[in-house]
């Protein structure tokens, strides 16, 4: 698995997951339960992971929809 996206914006990951699902790219969200530890302040980033083979296609999908991402851009 490769990191595609890292963000503290709780609305960005569901949007990215929906776009990737629409293109048949599986993704997995990490660090979801960290909000329990931080008290839902939104200071700890969540990560969206994809298969290594899907990384470039996933990056293209995010770029095509204007979603900025940090990991390995």
Provide the residue-averaged pLDDT. 87
Return residue spans where pLDDT drops below 50 for at least 5 consecutive residues.
none
CATH superfamily: UreE, C-terminal domain
Structural class: alpha+beta
Strand content: 15-25%
Task: Please report the distance between the alpha carbons of the first and last residues.
Answer: 16 Å
Domain DUF2007: 1-65
Pfam families: DUF2007
Protein name: Putative signal transducing protein
Question: In words, what does this structure look like?
Answer:
The chain has 73 residues and is an alpha+beta fold. The chain has a single domain, classed as UreE, C-terminal domain (Alpha-Beta Plaits). Helix content is 36%, strand content 21%. It contains three helices and three strands; from the N terminus they run E-H-E-H-E-H. Strands 1-3-2 form a three-stranded antiparallel beta sheet, covered by helices on one side. The longest helix is centred in the first third of the chain and has 11 residues, at 12-22. The two termini are 16 Å apart.
């Amino acid at each position: 698995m490769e990191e595609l996206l890292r963000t503290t914006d709780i609305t960005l990951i569901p949007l990215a997951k929906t776009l990737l699902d629409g293109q048949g790219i599986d993704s997995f969200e990490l660090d979801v339960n960290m909000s329990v530890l931080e008290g839902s302040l939104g200071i700890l980033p969540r990560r969206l992971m994809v298969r290594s083979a899907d990384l470039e296609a996933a990056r293209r999908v995010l770029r095509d929809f204007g979603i900025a991402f940090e990991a390995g851009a």
